[in-house]
Amino acid sequence: MDKTSFSERLTTLRNPSIMKTLTGIKHGVERETLRINPNGGLAQTPHQESLGAALTHEYITTDFSESLLEFITPPESSIDKTIGQLKDVHKFVMTNIGDERLWPMSMPCFIENQDAIPIANYGTSNVGKMKSLYRVGLKNRYGSMMQAISGVHFNFSLPNDFWEKWLDADTYLEVDKDSISSAYFGLIRNYRRFCWVIPYLYGASPALCSSFIKGKETGLPFKKLGKGTYYLPYATSLRMSDLGYTNSAQSGLNICYNKVDSYIASLRAAINQPSEGYEKFASKKDGEYQQLNSNVLQIENELYSPIRPKQPTRSLEKPTDALDERGVSYIEVRALDVNPFSAIGIERNQFYFLDVFLLYCLIKPSSFMNTDEYHETEVNLNAVVERGRDPKLILTNATESVEMMSWALQLFSEMKEVAIILDQANGTQDYSQALDFEKQKILDPSLTPSARILKHLVNENIDNGNLGLSLAESFKNELIGTDYKFMNAEDLAAHALLSLEKQRVIEQQEDISFDDFLASYFSEK
Fold first, then answer.
1. Which residues contact 517 (CB under 8 A, 6 or more apart)?
2. What pLDDT, on the 0 to 100 scale, is given for residue 1?
3. Alpha helical stretches, state H, 364-403
4. Is there a contact between 22 and 162 (Cβ–Cβ < 8 Å)?
């Protein structure tokens, strides 16, 4: 039987045999960023061949657009190594994109219209064409502007020896993919309950360029500054708002996070649920497909969520099939804005805090979540992204109204115990210090990234774009001037050449038509 109290589970976590396994926590980072011209406009050049093939490169790929780069680090237990690898990849890219820069913010630079956002090209193979067609579908469904938003995804996993000792001591269950997945889903439910903390602490998009909302209807009470910047006085992360990288059309899906089986079933149902609204894109236009299919979700990746359970997929394997067969391997935190005060979009302190926060979400008792409670978490998150620094902001905790600040301080009080355990396990004070650093933002909202950015924009009466361009220039010089630490220029050039060769092999081996390929991919198992 599960230990039901937080204090009991803390005591279990303090067991030396369990505590020592915490050094094996692994992280990976996926950082998105737009390539821009020296004048701040979106780069129209194709993905540079010197960077390799976006389809097959391990570390450098593209997301929605040819101009939207994504840098990926492999899972590592050393925070220093992950940060070093991310810097190495950034440096390599900076030295291979000519006079272009990398946009340092989540909300996009000035873009004249959505047709100026080139959709990513992955080559002539069927899998490459499928990836591009998926993005055509996204453009038709939601518009390209939303897809030009950048974020940072933080991947987190606990080692097998932790699960063997923790599950045995905490639940007395057999340690297998089902019990590990169940524990990860407990973490996910608590994350959803408390994830409003993330945009408060790390939200860095309180303002946006007028080009982003051109022609859009919004009921948000925007104020204007500079030549064309709109902002909300208390906003933390417009990226996470209904204007940003969310999909209100998905609000009725009722994805279930109680068990891995119910999550898979609800996600598969959405993938197979026809959409009247998307039926208008069902037929070909000028002989070309307009989307992968006309269902509510084309594929599983279309589900917008601040966190995802993940299992690495094999070639052409669907994410739900991977979860079904092998269980949850790690979780992906998707609520982080790009940190505009860091050349690589994320700072060291964030790693330590997120480790504390996610481990807290794991060991905090986590009951199943009904539809009403799930809706409550969505309302809380939206309130913080739009009005997070409002000192009078009220959230809802288990149907009871509570001041955001007092709830945050309560969470920090409990997280302090987790930070102490992580410090003891790693022989450091970094986790407690990170928690104390972030707590100051709770006590003083002016210390949050969103407040710091807004203060600069308002005081100087300058546009968001001017600040972004200035930071982009500074970061380019900073990164070019750094030394490689874990991967040098020769290694990364070799990776690029290898990825190009891998793509060529895939394209040469193609033996069925694209129509047959799609039919096969979407056929029932």
1. 126, 127, 130
2. 38
3. 371-387
4. yes
Q: Which residues contact 374 (CB under 8 A, 6 or more apart)?
A: 192, 254, 257
Cα distance between residue 289 and residue 126, in whole Å:
13
Question: For the segment 59-76, what is each residue's pLDDT rounded down to a tens digit?
Answer: 999 999 999 999 999 999
pLDDT digits (tens, 9 = 90+) for 313-370: 998 899 999 999 999 999 999 999 999 999 999 999 999 999 999 999 999 999 999 9
Say if strands 223-225 and 207-209 run parallel, antiparallel, or are unpaired: unpaired
- 384 in Cβ contact with 199 (< 8 Å): yes
Strand 68-72 and strand 229-231: pairing? unpaired
Whether residue 225 has pLDDT greater than 80: yes
Q: Please report the domains of the chain, with CATH numbers, ordered by start residue.
A: 6-517 (3.30.590.20)
pLDDT in tens, 262-296: 999 999 998 988 988 899 998 888 889 999 999 99
CA 144 – CA 65 distance, rounded (Å) = 9
61, 153 in Cβ contact below 8 A? no
**Quick one: CA dihedral 299, 305, 309, 312, positive or negative?**
positive
Q: How far is the C-alpha of 87 from the C-alpha of 76, rounded, in Å?
A: 15
Q: What share of the chain is helix, strand, coil (3-state, %, to 5)?
A: 50, 10, 40
What does the pLDDT average to over 41-64? 97
Dihedral pair phi/psi, residue 454, rounded to 5°: -65, -40
Per-residue CA distances from 203 to 107, 206, 246, 435 (Å): 11, 8, 15, 17
Task: Look up the pTM and report it.
Answer: 0.96
**CA distances (Å), 124 to each of 130, 316, 497, in order?**
10, 16, 18
Give, in order, the Cα–Cα distances in Å from 370 to each of 182, 190, 256, 288, 521.
16, 13, 8, 42, 33
Element (DSSP H or E) covering residue 146: helix 144-147
Own/partner pairs, 6-12, CB within 8 angstroms, 24+ separation: 6/363, 6/364, 6/365, 6/414, 9/170, 9/363, 9/364, 9/365, 10/363, 10/417, 10/418, 10/421, 12/166, 12/169, 12/170, 12/363
| Measured torsion, CA atoms of residues 437, 442, 445, 450, in degrees rounded to the nearest 10 | 70
In tens, the pLDDT along 436-488 reads 999 999 999 999 999 999 999 999 999 999 999 999 999 999 999 999 999 99
